[in-house]
Design goal:
Radius of gyration of chain B: 35 Å
Structural class of chain A: alpha+beta
Mean pLDDT of chain A: 89
Oligomer: heterodimer
Strand order of the largest sheet of chain A: 4-3-2-1-5
Structural class of chain B: mainly alpha
Strand content of chain A: 35-45%
Number of strands of chain B: 9
Chain lengths: 71, 829
């Protein structure tokens, strides 16, 4: 499923990210890359979401979240 | 001979890099708490023993790709300037993510030292470090620090000097990218081994890695045969991994970091971020978030006004006093034009700007607190959904909020946006956020035109108009000239931190210094130019005014003569009359003081009689002044019990004076009410007419009059038109200019200016001026920085034209509507 559909509190693992190279690089640098586990801190049907990755909290816009495939 | 070491400071955003920079150099620089605050390379120097450190603060970055201008800048500096040591500031409480950058820095081949910052926070979260082991595993010396308490700075300097002077080094370690990739690195490295000019200065392993990542900057620099080899390698690797290699490289780097951390870092507690997360549940929630944000912004303005008001009043009174002193003690031999330049141009202009410093400082303090606490990043999160409707994302919101402080850093902060369309749109609408200088104009105009209970709502509405227009403008741009997909939002939410008093003070001090510096340079120069524009060419003396003044003086002398029998002096004596006239100040306001000795004519018989008249006069003037203060709501009197008591006491005192000597008392009141006041009013009105005529004759007045037909539909006269020209150069000049034009007699303080504005224009015009100041063409520094950031004159030019037209239309609408509905059309002075 896409990360955009994950609910608050859910723990998911990134499978793939559909993004351009520069965005991919940014996400990697912030620790979001395939295989990494994320906790959804603030999900929901609209607006951006917040995920916890390692020790940081990262905001992902709705459009971004929808392009990240997680299980 | 002192040794000189160049140190480059690198690190993630929010790692406390700027604090470490301040600790090292003692240089005051702003510490922000959201991604991207350091958008420029900043430098500082310091001496430690016989070593001089030259410290360069690189932009905060998460990695060193060529995709963002910050990362490229940081990387280019290290590669090209070859600093003696690179200090990597690492947030100990988020070590793995921070060490990712470290692996990339190490590959650049410069000597590296890790400043492990915020070890206190990490310890509080139950993280333990085996520093010795970690530094061996990474191949980099590590110095533990607590930047916020300035702990570890000495150790860091010692480590830097040790590394720079070739002390014992740790065996270097590098990330092993796995046999497939390492083979390709080896293959590419061989083609680069020659001393090609493009790669001679960089480590070949790093260059090879960049080629595998298809880094355009490095691809351009290497010879074609290397590029070809690299392309073959990339194609091969992509087949092996079934996808882009970048992700694999990132994964291996994290693997290296995690491996090291597993051996050397132990975490004893699981619950981290817990307080921060708990706050975020409320602050970023869908229902509370937005109202809370709006309420906070309102609070900021309320506090700024309530707390800043008294201090501003005090300062403006001080400048008023200064102007008066200069006027009164001006040596008679020196050209009065110099005095006018000093009093009207310099004190009037610069003083008007400086007296608003408290308000400006408080505003910057509030923004610093929002920034340093980490709230600003939340605000961007909250606004993201709304911003999407106008085609921007939440991150655009950070430069826009900074715009409330000053538009120039706001435009520079648009660098945190990766997409050019997003950047240009944000840059274009950033001037619509009311900056500190415009805020200073509001703090002058709002109290002049609006009663206390209306001030905060009016200010709020001006800001909201700006925000609404920014939204409309952005939407318009995104659907016309800058159409296209916006880049998805990715932004770190830093943990909440208590802003330190020191950090906030540094920020206030920096901004305050800038403001004062601006007042002392740009505003000073503009004030003098504007003063000259409104003074020259000088109108010829108007005989009508001259005659009017003579008539008034004659009437004054005659009046005093009619009192002479009551006072008990010879009718033909003019000594008293002359003293009274000089104290009346020939049109200047004077207050009672001690009895002025009668002129050097020497002791005359009527001296005693005159003296008792003068002391009674002083007594009455002083009492009346006290009563006036008691009745003035602006000075804390008014309807209160204390005010009424003071008023009553004044009446009692006057009655007592009347009983003491009824005749003399009558003479005093007759003098004050029927001789002195009419005289002063006549002279004032002549002076005002003369001043207006002189202004109209001057260059500035002519320009203003030329524009008047275009401005009158807005409710503006030529004086506002003249002042608006100055505002285009720098907003503060507007205040300076009003001060020069309305301070006809050396009264530079802003409360006098406010009184005059109030009696000249209706509140509607006051509101219209603020709107025009808000929307109209941005100031010159903003235009310059917009040019620099957009690399084209097209954008600043579009701002000048677009925003001025918008300002005209909005003000035209508001003024027409207000006039039709009769809102605020009557002057209240």
């Amino acid at each position: 499923m896409s990360l955009g559909m994950a609910k608050t509190g859910q723990r998911v693992r990134v499978v793939s990210i559909d993004a351009g190279r520069s965005l991919q690089a940014r996400l990697s640098a912030m620790g979001i890359l395939p295989g990494v586990e994320l906790t959804v801190m603030s999900g929901g049907a609209r607006g951006p979401i917040v995920v916890a990755v390692r020790e940081s909290r990262v905001v992902l816009g709705r459009g971004m979240a929808q392009r990240i495939d997680v299980v | 001979m002192a040794r000189r070491i160049t140190v480059a400071l690198a690190g993630n955003p929010n790692s406390g890099k700027t604090t470490v920079f301040n600790n090292l150099t003692g240089c005051r620089q702003h510490v922000g708490n959201y991604p991207g605050v350091t958008v420029e390379t900043k430098e500082g120097a310091c001496s430690w023993g016989d070593t001089e450190l030259h410290v360069v603060d690189l932009p905060g970055t998460y990695s060193l790709t060529a995709f963002s201008p910050e990362e490229l800048a940081a990387r280019t500096f290290i590669v090209q300037q070859k600093p003696d040591v690179v200090v990597d500031v690492v947030d100990a409480s988020n070590i793995e993510r921070n060490l990712y950058l470290t692996t990339q820095l190490a590959e650049l081949g410069r000597p590296l030292v890790i400043a492990l910052n915020m070890t206190d926070v990490a310890r509080a979260r139950g993280i333990e470090f085996d520093l010795e082991r970690l530094s061996i595993l990474l191949g980099v010396p590590i110095v533990p620090m607590v930047g916020s308490r300035n702990e570890g700075t000495r150790d860091l300097v010692a480590a830097v000097i040790r590394v720079a002077t070739g002390g014992p080094a740790l065996p270097p370690r590098h990330v092993n990218y796995g046999s497939e990739i390492e083979e390709e690195i080896e293959r590419i490295t061989r083609t680069l081994a020659g001393d090609e000019p493009g790669v001679a200065s960089v480590p070949t392993r790093w260059a090879a890695l960049q080629l595998i990542e298809r880094d355009p900057a490095v691809e351009h620099a290497v010879p074609p045969q290397s590029r070809a080899v690299a392309a073959a390698s990339v194609a091969h690797l992509e087949k092996v991994f079934g996808g882009p290699v970048d992700t694999v490289l990132a994964d291996r780097r994290y693997g290296f970091v995690s491996g090291a951390c597993q051996e050397a870092v132990r975490s004893t507690a699981e619950a981290r971020h817990s307080i921060s997360d708990a706050i975020d549940v409320i602050v970023t929630s869908r229902f509370v978030g937005l109202p809370l944000f709006l309420a906070l912004m309102y609070l900021v303005f309320l506090v700024t006004f309530r707390l800043g008001g008294p201090a501003t009043d005090l300062l403006s009174q001080g400048f008023g006093g200064l102007a008066e002193i200069v006027t009164r003690w001006w040596p008679s031999g020196v050209d009065p034009a110099v005095r006018d330049l000093l009093v009207e141009g310099v004190i009037g202009g610069v003083g008007g700007v400086l007296s608003l410093l408290p308000n400006v400082l408080l505003l910057f303090m509030a923004i610093a607190i929002l920034e340093d606490s980490g709230y600003l990043a939340r605000a961007a999160f909250i606004m993201d959904h709304l911003m999407h409707h106008i085609g921007l994302h939440g991150k655009s919101f950070i430069p826009l909020v900074l715009g409330f402080g000053c538009t120039v850093p706001a435009v520079m902060a648009t660098r945190i946006l990766e997409n050019r369309r997003d950047r240009l749109t944000t840059m274009f609408v950033a001037p619509l956020m009311s900056c500190g200088a415009r805020f200073a104009i509001y703090s002058l105009l709002i109290p002049a035109f609006f009663p206390l209970q209306w001030r905060a709502p009016v200010l709020w509405s001006v800001y909201l108009v700006g925000v609404a227009l920014a939204i409309a403008g952005a939407k318009l741009l995104r659907s016309t000239a800058l159409r296209g997909e916006s880049v998805p939002l990715v932004m770190e939410l830093p943990p909440y931190r208590m802003p330190t008093i020191r950090g906030v003070c540094i920020h206030m001090w920096e901004r305050g210094r800038e403001y004062v510096k601006k007042a002392g340079t740009v505003i000073l120069a503009l004030s003098v130019v504007l003063w000259a524009m409104t003074t020259y060419p000088r109108a010829p003396e108007d005989p009508v005014c001259e005659r009017g003044r003579l008539d008034a003086t004659r009437a004054f002398h005659e009046g005093v003569r009619s009192l002479s029998s009551i006072i008990g002096i010879p009718t033909e004596s003019e000594t008293l009359s002359r003293v009274l006239l000089s104290r009346s100040g020939g049109g200047r306001f004077t207050t009672g003081g001690g009895v002025i000795p009668l002129s050097e004519d020497g002791r005359s018989d009527d001296e005693d009689a005159s003296t008792s008249f003068l002391s009674m006069l002083d007594e009455v003037i002083a009492t009346r002044e006290r009563m006036a203060t008691a009745n003035d709501p602006g000075s804390g009197g008014g309807h209160g019990v204390a005010g009424r008591l003071l008023h009553q006491a004044g009446l009692t005192r006057l009655a007592q004076l009347e009983r003491e000597d009824p005749h003399l008392y009558e003479a005093v009141t007759r003098y004050l009410d029927r001789i002195e006041r009419p005289y002063r009013m006549a002279v004032d009105s002549i002076n005002a007419d003369e001043h207006a005529a002189r202004l109209g004759y001057s260059l500035g007045g002519r320009v203003g009059r030329f524009m008047e037909p275009a401005l009158s539909p807005l409710g503006f006269d030529w004086r506002i038109g003249t002042a608006l020209i100055g505002a285009m150069a720098a907003r503060e000049a507007f205040i300076a200019q009003l001060g020069i034009m309305f301070a006809a007699d050396g009264n530079a303080s802003s409360d006098v200016l406010q009184t005059r504005l109030r009696s000249t224009y209706p509140p509607l015009t006051g509101f219209a001026i603020m709107l025009f100041i808000l929307i109209g063409s941005p100031c010159v520094p903003t235009l310059v920085v917009t040019f620099r950031e957009s690399r084209s004159w097209k954008w600043p030019a579009a701002q000048v034209i677009g925003l001025t037209v918008a300002a005209y239309l909005v003000v035209l609408f508001v003024n027409t509507l207000g006039t039709l509905l009769g809102i605020g059309t009557a002057t209240i002075g």
